Amino acid sequence: MKKQLTILAIESSCDETAAAVLSGSRYMLHDTGHSFKILSNCVSSQVQVHAKYGGVVPEVAARLHIEKILPMIQLALKQAKKKIAEIDYIAVTAGPGLMSSLMIGTETAKTLALALNKQLIRINHIEGHLLSITEQLEFPAVGLVVSGGHTQIILVKDYLKYKLIGETRDDAAGEAFDKVAKILGLGYPGGPAISVAAAKVESVKSIPGIEIKLPRPMLDKVGFEMSFSGLKTSVLYKWNELVKILSPENLDKARNLMAYEFQKAVVEVLVAKTAAAALKFKAKTIVLGGGVSANKWLRSEMLRVISEKLPDVNVLMPEMKMAGDNAAMIAQAAYFHVLKKDFIEPTKLKPDPGWELVS
Ligand code: KG4
Ligand code: ZN
């Protein structure tokens, strides 16, 4: 058997059509798991199309996945300088996600695996985000996965050994960013729009006579549960009041202030809960993943608080292009499943929109 293995990974769980190629050793060279290389990581984002509707439209997403999936696979192979025949394994996101989006990826992967007689690996999207950075990953690790659909704190006991220790009761952090941006008229996707507005605040953190202070939901509660839906409602009530009383110029300032305060509130909760989990489970590493992990304030606050409170804990953050949905993270997760010989018979592969990550 060849010493090197090659994986083609496909991701289509929401509104990004992605394909990536990974080349790795059949043996883990050391226990930091870094015995592989990403040869290509191609993403076709539909975000501009969905922006017109203020959110992802599943039917539109599925149609665009159909258009883009083969070109993305071809591009990923081309950039990796690999022919499809040189691929050893096909990996695909099977859930969680939108049913109609997941189906395009899983059917494509299934067809390729059957036609080319390759082994197939189904990957959980959350596991992909958790393993979007594996360099220097030491166990036990605490993972914070923050995306449009999920906000979870996961204990990673070892490669592929996970335990959910806390999650949001209602809206995911990314979903709250998206909804608050909509309330403030900042457009879609909300995360980057809120960050840009918040950054405009700089030194002016108040408008005379107006106080913008939002709650920090669940911050003082013991445990790792979170909630962001009430925070979004607080923004809505406060904003509706401000719209009635402020001049257009002050309203613009208030919009940025609200974005600033909202981002601060979400980040404070995420960081505090993650730090508490890292302390309780004696984590050696904290690892961030998911679209919201691209947030600069979250990244800098996580580093600041952890270096102050838990200086021995190493904080790992994905490169920007690995934070949002991509297929390289799916390939990385698949690498560990290949080593464990975790294959699925292609005809048995089904999308699973509500797939919970458990070891
Ligand atoms: O992981 P992801 O690409 O897709 C899902 O699996 O959901 O995450 C998308 C989410 C969106 O809600 C988006 O607003 C949020 O990530 N996001 C951000 C930032 N960039 C993307 N949230 C906060 N700050 C950002 N810079
Ligand atoms: Zn995601």
In short:
The chain is an alpha/beta fold. The protein has helices spanning 47-51, 58-80, 99-116, 125-130, 173-183, 190-199, 229-245, 248-280, 296-309, 320-323, 328-339; strands at 4-11, 16-25, 36-45, 89-95, 119-124, 141-146, 151-158, 161-167, 285-289, 314-316.
The CATH class of the largest domain is: Alpha Beta
Rg calc: 21 Å
Small-molecule binders: 5'-O-[(R)-(carboxyoxy)(hydroxy)phosphoryl]adenosine, zinc ion
Q: What's the count of strands?
A: 10
Oligomer: single chain
Could you say what the CATH topology of the largest domain is called? Nucleotidyltransferase, domain 5
Distance between the termini: 29 Å
Side by side, the strands of the main sheet go 3-2-1-4-5
In which range does the helix fraction lie?
40-55%
Q: Report the total helices.
A: 11
Shape: globular
CATH architecture field of the largest domain? 2-Layer Sandwich
**What percentage of the residues does DSSP assign to strands (E)?**
15-25%
Structural summary, described in words:
- The chain is of the alpha/beta class and 359 residues long.
- It folds into 2 domains: 4-132 and 321-348, ATPase, nucleotide binding domain (Nucleotidyltransferase, domain 5); 141-317, Nucleotidyltransferase, domain 5 (2-Layer Sandwich).
- It contains 11 helices and 10 strands.
- The strands form 2 sheets. Strands 3-2-1-4-5 form a 5-stranded mixed beta sheet, sandwiched between helices.
- Helix 2 runs parallel beside helix 3 (99-116), helix 5 (173-183) packs parallel to helix 7 (229-245) and helix 7 packs antiparallel against helix 8 (248-280).
- The relative contact order is 0.18.
- The model has no long low-confidence stretch (mean pLDDT 95).
